[in-house]
Amino acid sequence: MAKQERAIRTRRAILEAAGAVFDEHGYTSTTIAMVLERAEVTKGALYFHFPSKESLAQAVLDEQVPFGAIPSQPCKLQEVIDITFVVGQRLLSNALLRGSVRLAVDQCAPPGVDHTGPFRQWTDHLTPLLEQARAQGELLPTVDPRETVELLVGAFTGIQLMSRALTGRDDLGRRLSVLWSHMLPSIAVPGLLLGLDSRADRGARVLASLESRVA
Amino acid sequence: MAKQERAIRTRRAILEAAGAVFDEHGYTSTTIAMVLERAEVTKGALYFHFPSKESLAQAVLDEQVPFGAIPSQPCKLQEVIDITFVVGQRLLSNALLRGSVRLAVDQCAPPGVDHTGPFRQWTDHLTPLLEQARAQGELLPTVDPRETVELLVGAFTGIQLMSRALTGRDDLGRRLSVLWSHMLPSIAVPGLLLGLDSRADRGARVLASLESRVA
Question: Which positions does the record tag as DNA-binding (chains A, B) (predicted)?
Answer without folding.
Answer: 31-50
